[in-house]
């Protein structure tokens, strides 16, 4: 487990960028955090680390956004509005989760039962006592790791 403290959106972006650079094909990340905690900023950093130039925003109404022009495909899921796991099956989630790209899933706790055995959980938390822009980011391996 790794804990990183950031003190600005730029630092949160930079952590995402570094993680994107180090990512290997087939890696799955879950991203947990309340609204307004910086999940999109982190995701934009990750996309930058994958050399994706197009703007990245949360795919709240499409469930998955696919970016293919980087060094490998980047699949950004937001399952906040998902009704049940069947919706994930309808969009063929396995092709993404077990494909040759990087998968990042926001609100992954809602689809816990279909997550792959191995993934990295990224949890972003605020602590207003440490400042408005302070974030505590915990990165934890689940399963056997790679």
Give a description of the structure.
With 146 residues, the chain is an alpha/beta fold. The chain has helices at residues 9-22, 39-49, 85-90, 93-97; strands at 2-6, 28-32, 64-67, 74-78, 102-106, 119-126, 135-142. A seven-stranded mixed sheet has the order 1-7-6-2-5-4-3, covered by helices on one side. Helix 1 (9-22) packs across helix 2 (39-49). The longest helix is centred in the first third of the chain and has 14 residues, at 9-22. The model has no long low-confidence stretch (mean pLDDT 93).
List the topology elements.
Blueprint: E1 2-6, H1 9-22, E2 28-32, H2 39-49, E3 64-67, E4 74-78, H3 85-90, H4 93-97, E5 102-106, E6 119-126, E7 135-142
Structural class computed from helices and strand pairing: alpha/beta
Q: What's the CATH C level?
A: Alpha Beta
Instruction: Please state the second-level CATH architecture.
Output: 3-Layer(aba) Sandwich
Strand order, biggest sheet? 1-7-6-2-5-4-3
The count of strands amounts to: 7
Low-pLDDT regions: none
Mean pLDDT: 93
Q: Hey, roughly how much beta strand do the residues contain? A: 25-35%
State the helix count. Answer: 4
CATH fold name: Rossmann fold
Overall 3D form: globular
Whole-number radius of gyration? 14 Å
Q: Main β-sheet, in a few words?
A: 7 strands, mixed
- The end-to-end span amounts to 14 Å
């Amino acid at each position: 487990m790794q804990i990183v403290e950031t003190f600005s959106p730029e630092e949160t972006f930079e952590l995402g960028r570094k993680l994107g650079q180090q990512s290997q094909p087939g890696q799955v990340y879950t991203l947990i955090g309340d609204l307004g905690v910086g999940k999109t900023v982190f995701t934009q950093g990750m996309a930058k680390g994958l050399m994706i130039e197009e703007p990245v925003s949360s795919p709240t109404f499409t469930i998955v956004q696919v970016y293919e022009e980087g060094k490998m495909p980047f699949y950004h899921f937001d399952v906040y509005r998902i009704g049940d796991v069947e919706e994930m099956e309808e969009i063929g989630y396995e092709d993404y989760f077990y494909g040759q790209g990087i998968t990042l899933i926001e609100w992954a706790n809602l689809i816990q039962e279909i997550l792959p055995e191995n993934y990295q959980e990224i949890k972003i938390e605020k602590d207003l006592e440490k400042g408005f822009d302070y974030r505590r980011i915990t990165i934890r391996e689940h399963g056997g790791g790679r």
